Amino acid sequence: MEEIVPTYAHRFSQEYGYRFMKQDLLWTQARVRTPEQFERWSLLVALALNQLVLARHCGQALYRLWEPAQRPLTPRQVRRTMPSLLVLVGTPARACQPRGKSPGRASGFHPQPVPRYPVVLKSRLKAKTKG
Asked: What ranges do the domains of the chain cover?
């Protein structure tokens, strides 16, 4: 019981964290096929959330009319300012080079179809008859 009470106090912020990751960071929108891919995607979303928390003190806030300016910035407000921050920080990667039209797949190449799995349906409960 002593372990549950302190954790329960943080339930509100945890639920809003999951909501933010699902709605703003598109955590559940990724089209992954394997649990390993979902695990990597979840780690990437968590890293993005950590960057938003760390970038809280770096930029100007874009407050909406109904948002109080006295409260600390939320991750959603920081996400709105990230494009201007990323332009200031820059990138270590070089600029993309335009290329011509892709030659496409080699002739005779036939990719394997994606493995399909049967749909699992709940079985209907049969009514027991007295007899």
From this structure: 4-89
78 and 55 in contact (C-beta within 8 Å)? yes
Model pLDDT for residues 110-122, shown as the tens digit of each residue? 999 988 888 888 8
Angle at 80 between CA 28 and CA 39, to 5 degrees: 25
Q: What is the pLDDT of residues 47-89, one digit of tens each?
A: 998 888 888 887 677 778 888 878 778 888 888 888 888 888 8
Torsion of CA 53, 59, 61, 62, to 10 degrees: -110
In the numeric block, which tokens belong to residue 103? 């030659």
